[in-house]
Amino acid sequence: MLGGIYSSERCELCGVRMEDNGKDAVCCPNPKHKKQRATNVFVKFPGVFKRFKDYEKAFQFLHGVRFKTTEGTFDERDYKKSNPLGFDNLAEKYLEIKKETVKAGSFTHIKRDIEKASVYFGSANIKEIGYGEIEDFILLQKGIASKTRHNIKANIHAFFTWLVKRRVLPKDQMPDFPEVKFELSWRKTITTEVQDSILEEIKRICWNKNPRIYIAIKWAATYIMLRPGELRGILEEDIDLERGVVFVKKHKTDRQTSKIKCFPLNRDDLELVKSLSRGFPKMPFFRRDRGGGGKSAGTPFGKHILYDYWKQACKNVGIEGIDLYGGTRHSSATDLRRKGLTPEAIQNLTGHDTSQAFRRYYQVDLDELREGYELVRQAKTSAPILHLQNRKADP
After folding, report:
1. What distance in Å separates the CA atoms of residue 286 and residue 360, rounded to the nearest whole number?
2. Residues with Cβ < 8 Å from 208, sequence gap 6 or more?
3. How far, in Å, CA of 204 to CA of 202, rounded?
């Protein structure tokens, strides 16, 4: 039979090494010395070495691993001193990988949830964590919104999915997860007329200080493929004035997809860009024109500058409760739906779930985008919609 119980102790009377009697002890093989018993024993099994101070426990352990071997569930990693299947050990490795593969903002939330779970589960073997244990952990989180609770569950689920992909955990041992229901609140939006009044106020209060602030917020309202935070990553070299195209290299999914978004500028926006002084290729396009507050001229906008100007303009025109994201991207998309664009067309304009290639970069058809963005621009002026003629794709 596989494995056995042994001891390095010898009989005090004859010096013979003690042996397992197969019943109740590791003792001297000499019948006259059978009362001479080992006090420290160990189990040796293929891939396993474990010490015991109690023969009965060693006996139970040995027969346990023999039984698991017979039924095909034996895993020597379960018995390693380094505990390679411990939740905390695997969580540490998972976070190391996630730190390099997701954006800093996303990693912050992942790290928070996984570390919280690591404290709760500790060194517990991942194969012993099932539906009940996960549900208890999720329900333990008090004083949080249902969406936050759902996100915690999603991050733990992603961790176990990663374990299966790395073949640390067999697919048939992936635990079931409890359902965590939640409802997202509707983001408040505004009409085109209200949006225009806010944009005009932003232009009034910032144009002489730095026109790029106004341009950034105007772009966020027009080119609904853009998220406000993505504007800060656009460099001078990312704007092709000859073709009127802007490339966005740093965006929400750039690490996952390794692709670049790009969009065409409307004619008036292209002229605005041409009217500005150009910087070096690697300079941020949306940058400070002058120093101050510990920041130097030429450095990119801070994270809150666009929001701060948006908030001030809203206050000046008497608009309350509308954030930058909702008042630009979401409001423009909603207004396009009111004006008759199909959900598919709007989805195309927002850059969600598209696959048409522009060279080796991620991009939808530029003519189609020009048509849509022209509709956004002309809707603001009530001008007739300009239907662009089809032409060959940009080389």
Report:
1. 26
2. none
3. 5
Query: Alpha-carbon distance 311 to 321, whole Å?
Result: 9
> Same domain for 290 and 344?
yes
Which pLDDT belongs to residue 310? 94
Q: Of 43, 68, 47, which Cα lies nearest the Cα of 56? A: 43
pLDDT in tens, 212-226: 999 999 999 988 888
d(C-alpha 101, C-alpha 255), whole Å: 6
Domain finish residue from 79, 104, 135: 79
Indicate the pairing of strand 357-358 with strand 361-362: antiparallel
Q: Is residue 80 over pLDDT 70?
A: yes
Which neighbouring-strand residues pair with 43?
Answer: 5, 50
For the entire predicted model, the pTM comes to 0.52
Domain boundary among 79, 103, 119: 79
Collapsing DSSP states into helix, strand and coil, what is residue 9? coil
Q: 167 and 128: one domain?
A: yes
Q: What is the pLDDT of residues 139-166, one digit of tens each?
A: 998 888 888 898 899 999 999 999 999 9
301 and 152 share one domain:
no
Which one-letter DSSP state was computed for residue 250? S
Task: State pLDDT tens for residues 229-242.
Answer: 788 889 999 999 99
DSSP assignment, residue 26? E
Specify whether 260 is located in the same domain as 203: yes
Exposed / middle / buried, residue 187 (Cβ in 10 Å: 0-12, 13-18, 19+): middle
Domain count within the chain = 3
The CA distance from 375 to 373, in Å, is: 5
Cα 125 to Cα 72, 79, 82, 85, 122, distances in angstroms: 18, 10, 12, 5, 9
The whole-number pLDDT of residue 183 equals 63
Q: Could you list the residue range(s) of the whole structural domain that residue 53 is in?
A: 4-79
